[in-house]
Please model this.
Amino acid sequence: MKNPHHSSSSKGFTLIELLVVIAIIGTLAAAGFSVGPAIINSAKKTSGMATASAIAMAVEQYYTEYAALPADSDSVSTDTQLDSTTNGIGTLNILAGEDVNGQNPRKIRFLSVKQAKNGIDGAVYTGNSISKIVDPFGEPYFIRLDYDYDEVLRFTPNGSTAVTLRGRRVAVHSLGVKKNGTPTAKTLIKTW
Model:
């Protein structure tokens, strides 16, 4: 005997059930899209921090080996800020194992940084030499070196907040934003 109230068409979903599922999926997708950029920026900062730390550690290892800070010129006597895309290239190559101006006669490789992909987030090479090192946002790292050997570094990393570091020979940072962004103390990728 057949039940007249139970038809064979009740095997599918009702319109209400489908709308509820679509609403849930839409809510989850919206939440994922809003969190996505924050996760990407956090991953970029972590990668940038690894590179900045590698540069700072290479300087400290160089100092331990040679009892001096690396410098691609002999005329450096005050604290200096180097840029990993311009005036710091010679120093970075010294740390990478080249003997620039007799600064690394044993050709010890202190610095090992991953190779950049599409010109960002790592070292860009010309032949075997580093031509620049850039952060995950495509911007340079700034390397502050204590060439007067007083173990005090004073500088303004983002252009507005002054920093004094005591007991340090090196500090490395990047602004942590793309060129058109506004760097703040919160965006900095830094080793202090």
